[in-house]
Amino acid sequence: MIIETQVPLQAHNTFGIAAKAERLLRLRSMEDVAALLTDPIRTEPHFVLGGGSNIVITGDIKPLVIKVELKGKQLVSEDDKAWIVQAAAGEDWHDFVAWTLEKGWPGLENLAMIPGLVGASPVQNIGAYGVELQDRFESLDAVDLQTGQHFTLDAAQCAFGYRDSIFKHQASDKRDLGLLGRALITQVRFRLPKKWKADIGYADLEKKQAQTGIANPTAQQVFDWVCDIRRAKLPNPQVVGNAGSFFKNPTVTPEQCADIIAREPRLVHYHLSDGRIKLAAAWLIDACGWRGKSVGNAAVYDKQALVIINKGGRDSPCTGGEVVTLAKAIQTSVYERFGIQLEPEPVVV
Ligand code: EPU
Question: Which residue puts its alpha carbon closest to atom 23 of ligand 1?
Fold first, then answer.
């Protein structure tokens, strides 16, 4: 087991923030994972780094950084109903989605172009254009760094919610399986039903359908549409550093929504099946005039107010502190105007 020291992380976080890992351990194979499990270092404070697409680094990282570079993807089983496809945690998410389509196993096309690695996808329960990871999830393998045990979880055990899972929560008591800071995901399996139907109920996809005149798109067409929409709206992290949506879309009660609409008739809102109402955080931020505003080299993206970008590029990148200051200022102004507390999506390290 080789522990590297003073490892630059600028290329390993999509914001492109310059910081170092004081100690970094790469996991490239299950043998590396086995070696970690037998080493006392496994119980030390640590930070698991995937694609670095959902983090804001505010300084050099002192806890051991465990970088997951496990590779491999395969069809593990198939029956009349579905293909079960597995990918190792270190596989690139978008490449994995593209590979499933090439193989003729549709189902993940709406989740094209989400930055990051397969291993982080269940942590966040990534979602886009009407589909969430939990809709296609079968199970995952992980190791518990506290106990040194391997374990497998199904969807119910992952306790998925909107951009949420058991991996984001600390255990509140002994019976509770909060896995924050304990679990290292090694493999994720997806159930891709053979009875496929395009999921194009989302407004942006309906627009594409109308523009192209294609009523019944193939999975590859949906994939291409999603890629087009994302390219038009979201900055490519390889060109402009960012961590995707910076805040979650808040939900409110119908009463709270009616109260805001009385003051702000243009409020963008969606009715959820549970009776609550989802508000577009991007609209709330936009309405407060944040588009294009900046703190140092951290700025609100001018095409999507929900995204904070590094406008200093590689040479004079924003700092994590600038991102956090900008995010706090946005939260304060949205709260003062709408009474809504926005919750950040990325993890601040
Ligand atoms: N809007 C504005 N101003 C803007 C941008 C958007 O007013 O600057 C309004 C528009 O009216 C639009 C609404 O906000 O109708 C919602 O915008 P959009 O459809 O672009 O989606 P979103 O709610 O901002 C969510 C996810 C994205 C995902 C898209 C598409 C969250 C936090 N974000 O964004 O996920 O790609 O829907 O499904 O749920 C991510 O999590 O990193 C991410 C990019």
Answer: 280
